[in-house]
């Protein structure tokens, strides 16, 4: 520890008008990166507060009395970038002595452009636990020589300096448990655990290869059970989601976790995302251990597109895995991407046929493709002059909305076809989910007699989510039409993100 205790504020900032469409009843889960960084800082004697604007509706003025020396933002190129920009500027005005640092994926893959913003003092590249700790220790001692802090970007007068990358944390179990006590756990709809980092797959639309540079690591099954025990004992958690990209990749650990959950007297329900390449035996074990929900990255039903995005799973394999989950009474959502580069109307129609015929119109999340920096497909779009990359940080929120909604168009599929599909999805999501459950999981409806209040609450939440998605989409389309008429209007448009599942 240094000579004095440092105060640090860590922020997960939503878009400015997020609350207009989402509230505490919407999908919310822990920002695991901030919780882990906070735990390391506390372990070394520093005072930390976490402000998660997705569930905590305070204002910047409410933190003036805390007077942090460092204010850190966890930023993705999407849901919370706009809010992070706005709050960074506000804190620079309110607390001019405080240092502003950005981390997570966007700052890591575009460190120079991020650091160039006048209201950002530092960027953290890659995992932030020990980079932030060393930065705090430098600030604590008044040491302005930051050149020895690996994984840090900083300003040396007008020069932007990006230091050597920090090695990945190989022993994840050496980290302290996340600082759950710094957040109101009960306010989150879906408490979550992150038990691994990195991904071995090569999907071209994903940032992971660039961000983690091929590194993968995970904690043991025993470590996972200990953390679940803590969350249950301390916060009475009954449901948990494993939030990493592919919880099921390490099959040996997956089976160990399932068997340990089965052996526990205190049961818990859980969910995760997975690749659609699991065996029926593993799925049966997951169901027995308490898995009730799964998200499958299908992306496309077109064999050509699956090869183009390097999915390394065939449509036939995905369909087989999907039905194994359904047969074991695990609710299964599938994620679909449309509007990708090179996608033709034939590819698009093949995906629609796959959903209709092979999967019997399941409930799915329908996303327009957005070229995110750090992914191979983003590089493809730049190289083929399909997009114009934003020249400054403030341009990214508008960029994401432009390509994520009616506006940006990168495929060969007619825009009216994509828009019709999006409209259909956003207005029939609840009906589709209800219909599919009625056809393939009728036993679920025993809940009407066993727990009618729970059934009504879930039904209300489902319809509310559909209304939020539809209203959000309609608002964004209206904004984009205004921008076409008057480019000055809403140069930094304000809205939320509809990519969460209730």
Automatic annotation (TrEMBL):
Domain B12-binding: 6-146
Gene Ontology CC terms: cytosol
Top-level lineage group: Bacteria
Keyword Transferase: yes
Radical SAM core domain mapped to chain residues: 185-406
Pfam families: B12-binding, Radical_SAM
CDD domains: Radical_SAM (cd01335), radical_SAM_B12_BD (cd02068)
Keyword Metal-binding: yes
The protein's name: Radical SAM protein
């Amino acid at each position: 520890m240094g000579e004095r205790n440092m105060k640090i504020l860590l922020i997960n900032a939503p878009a400015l008008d997020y609350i207009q469409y989402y509230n505490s009843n919407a999908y919310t889960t822990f920002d695991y990166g901030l919780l882990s960084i906070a735990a390391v800082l506390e372990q070394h004697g520093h005072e930390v507060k976490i402000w998660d604007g997705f569930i905590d509706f305070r204002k910047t003025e409410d933190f003036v009395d805390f007077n942090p020396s460092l204010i850190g933002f966890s930023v993705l190129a999407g849901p919370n970038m706009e809010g992070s920009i706005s709050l960074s500027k506000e804190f620079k005005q309110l607390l001019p002595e405080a240092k502003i640092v950005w981390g997570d994926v966007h700052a890591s893959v575009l460190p120079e452009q991020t650091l160039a913003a006048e209201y950002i003092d530092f960027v953290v590249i890659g995992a932030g636990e020990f980079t932030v700790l060393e930065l705090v220790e430098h600030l604590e001692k008044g040491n302005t020589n930051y050149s020895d802090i690996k994984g840090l970007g900083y300003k040396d007068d007008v020069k932007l300096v990006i230091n050597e990358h920090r090695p990945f944390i190989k022993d994840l179990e050496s980290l302290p448990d996340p600082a759950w006590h710094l957040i109101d756990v009960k306010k989150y709809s879906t408490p979550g655990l992150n038990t691994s980092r990195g991904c071995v797959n090569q999907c071209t639309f994903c940032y992971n290869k660039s961000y983690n540079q091929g590194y993968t690591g995970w904690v043991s099954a025993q470590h996972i059970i200990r953390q679940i025990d803590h969350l249950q004992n301390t916060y009475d958690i009954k449901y948990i989601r494993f939030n990493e990209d592919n919880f099921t990749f390490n099959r040996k650990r997956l089976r160990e976790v399932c068997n340990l959950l089965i052996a526990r007297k205190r049961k818990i329900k859980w969910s995760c995302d997975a690749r659609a390449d699991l065996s029926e035996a593993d799925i049966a074990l997951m169901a027995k251990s308490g898995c009730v929900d799964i998200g499958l990255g299908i992306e496309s039903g077109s064999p050509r597109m699956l090869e183009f995005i390097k999915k390394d799973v065939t449509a036939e394999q995905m369909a087989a895995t999907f039905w194994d989950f359904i047969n074991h009474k695990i609710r299964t959502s599938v994620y679909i991407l449309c509007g990708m580069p090179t996608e033709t109307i034939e590819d698009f129609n093949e995906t629609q046929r796959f959903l209709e015929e092979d999967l019997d119109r399941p409930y799915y999340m329908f996303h327009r493709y957005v070229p995110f920096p750090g992914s191979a497909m983003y590089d493809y779009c730049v190289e083929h002059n399909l997009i114009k990359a934003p020249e400054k940080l403030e341009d990214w929120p508008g960029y994401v909305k432009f390509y994520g909604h009616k506006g940006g168009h990168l495929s060969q599929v007619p825009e009216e076809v994509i828009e019709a599909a999006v409209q259909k999805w956003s207005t029939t999501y609840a009906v589709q989910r209800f219909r599919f459950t009625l056809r393939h999981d009728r036993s679920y409806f025993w809940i009407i007699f066993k727990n009618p209040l729970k059934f009504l609450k879930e039904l209300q939440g489902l319809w509310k989510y559909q209304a939020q998605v539809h209203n959000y989409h309609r608002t964004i389309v209206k904004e984009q039409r205004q921008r076409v008429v008057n480019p000055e209007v809403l140069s930094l448009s304000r809205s939320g993100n509809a990519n969460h599942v209730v």
